[in-house]
Amino acid sequence: MSTQHTQNPLDTQPIGKIFLRYLIPSLVGMILMAVNLAVDGIMVGNKLGPVALAGVNIAGPVYTVFVAMSLWLGIGGATLYSQSMGRKEPERARFIFTHSLVLIGSGTLIIGFIAWMFHEPLVYALGANDETAPFAADYMNVFLVFGFVFTLENAFSIFVRNDGNPNLAMAALVTTAFSNVGINYMILYVFDMGVREIAFGTILAATLGLLVLTTHFFTKKSNLKLVPFRFEKPLTVKAFTFGFPSFLAEVGISVFTISHNIMFARLAGTVGVAAFSVLNYVHGVMLLMFLGMGSAIQPIISYFHGADETAKKRAIMRIAIRTAFIAGAACFLIGQVAATPIVHLFGDFPTEVKEMATLGIRLFFIAYFVMGINFVLMSYFQSIGSVAVATWITAGREIFFMLLFLLTIPFVFGANAIWLSIPFAELAVLAFILVYLKRNRIVFREDKGL
């Protein structure tokens, strides 16, 4: 076993090749999942109508909770896993893997069961009315009972990527995305079924993705083995701590959506909310792309940190920051040139909605210049165990600074200034990060220490 791990590709391959080996599968998988979610919504809306779609969206926070749980313990456990592998402690790494999966699976089952017992008041607490409640309940109840499949798939995917098999993690995401679209198409357009069956279809697609991931157990290079479980409180606390920035990032997405909907409704009415809904779909794809960049460097940085490979950490960060900036600049240019065609993709809206959404894309896309860099830096600090800094970056860009600008500049400059709250927040956070790096003499240049 020891000979196997001395030949880890992270120890032998060139830095550029390592980065691409993790980046490309991560980006492809994340973007496909974003497209999958959009197509799913389009099919439900077209076949079952706006009330059914509204019901599914109302139940959406249940999906978000399961994602947040799997990221919280998944990223936290996987970071500790890769650090152990970097220290050449494969037995400890296997225990961390087993410990994390047991906690994620059991935690999801317990929370799901408790929520299911109070499902009726929960549906109305999420915003349903008598019209949407039946659809929301049908969708939500399936997730509450079987959502552990989804969380295990998501967490296992993170561990497979951290165990040196990013291509298999991507293949599982591709399987989940395409099978979800195919299964739900059959459910809606062939068998003429409804929302409850759509939820079962999503769980079935996740099960197929999980089956793809289990093939990693049978590869010669796999270190992922289930070992006897024993509860270890210090490890649990550490995993929760290390994964907290990822959990907070998921919460921040909800804060972003809710706060912007409220502000647009107050200052621009239905037109503003409709325009924001277009931007939010597009932003979801971009957000997952940048999240993919952070996910790509996490296993690498965690491994090199455990192995005390300072120069390699520095080299990966240089490449990652440049890549994030180039991708962000490309996204900004696309937004300026193609804002109108992008809006038209979502339907034939009234002129005032189209005009506001077009302007919104052009203003909001300024954020992408630095958003990717902030994601990469957050992932770096999380991967080396500087959780306080990673948490501050996440809370600053998605909650504190965003709300600060959202609750001030629109009242001075009007409703269109709402689009600038995220760009301003991203720039403010980057400025604070640069000050922190300078004060702590953390640099990523070749000629200085990290």
From TrEMBL:
<dbReference type="InterPro" id="IPR045070">
    <property type="entry name" value="MATE_MepA-like"/>
</dbReference>
<feature type="transmembrane region" description="Helical">
    <location>
        <begin position="96"/>
        <end position="119"/>
    </location>
</feature>
<keyword id="KW-0472">Membrane</keyword>
<dbReference type="GO" id="GO:0046677">
    <property type="term" value="P:response to antibiotic"/>
</dbReference>
<dbReference type="InterPro" id="IPR048279">
    <property type="entry name" value="MdtK-like"/>
</dbReference>
<dbReference type="Pfam" id="PF01554">
    <property type="entry name" value="MatE"/>
</dbReference>
<keyword id="KW-1003">Cell membrane</keyword>
<feature type="transmembrane region" description="Helical">
    <location>
        <begin position="168"/>
        <end position="191"/>
    </location>
</feature>
<feature type="transmembrane region" description="Helical">
    <location>
        <begin position="325"/>
        <end position="347"/>
    </location>
</feature>
<dbReference type="GO" id="GO:0015297">
    <property type="term" value="F:antiporter activity"/>
</dbReference>
<feature type="transmembrane region" description="Helical">
    <location>
        <begin position="51"/>
        <end position="75"/>
    </location>
</feature>
<keyword id="KW-0046">Antibiotic resistance</keyword>
<keyword id="KW-0812">Transmembrane</keyword>
<feature type="transmembrane region" description="Helical">
    <location>
        <begin position="418"/>
        <end position="437"/>
    </location>
</feature>
<keyword id="KW-1133">Transmembrane helix</keyword>
<feature type="transmembrane region" description="Helical">
    <location>
        <begin position="359"/>
        <end position="377"/>
    </location>
</feature>
<feature type="transmembrane region" description="Helical">
    <location>
        <begin position="278"/>
        <end position="304"/>
    </location>
</feature>
<dbReference type="GO" id="GO:0005886">
    <property type="term" value="C:plasma membrane"/>
</dbReference>
<feature type="transmembrane region" description="Helical">
    <location>
        <begin position="197"/>
        <end position="218"/>
    </location>
</feature>
<dbReference type="InterPro" id="IPR002528">
    <property type="entry name" value="MATE_fam"/>
</dbReference>
<dbReference type="InterPro" id="IPR051327">
    <property type="entry name" value="MATE_MepA_subfamily"/>
</dbReference>
<protein>
    <recommendedName>
        <fullName>Multidrug export protein MepA</fullName>
    </recommendedName>
</protein>
<keyword id="KW-0813">Transport</keyword>
<comment type="similarity">
    <text>Belongs to the multi antimicrobial extrusion (MATE) (TC 2.A.66.1) family. MepA subfamily.</text>
</comment>
<dbReference type="GO" id="GO:0042910">
    <property type="term" value="F:xenobiotic transmembrane transporter activity"/>
</dbReference>
<feature type="transmembrane region" description="Helical">
    <location>
        <begin position="139"/>
        <end position="156"/>
    </location>
</feature>
<feature type="transmembrane region" description="Helical">
    <location>
        <begin position="389"/>
        <end position="412"/>
    </location>
</feature>
<feature type="transmembrane region" description="Helical">
    <location>
        <begin position="20"/>
        <end position="39"/>
    </location>
</feature>
<feature type="transmembrane region" description="Helical">
    <location>
        <begin position="239"/>
        <end position="258"/>
    </location>
</feature>
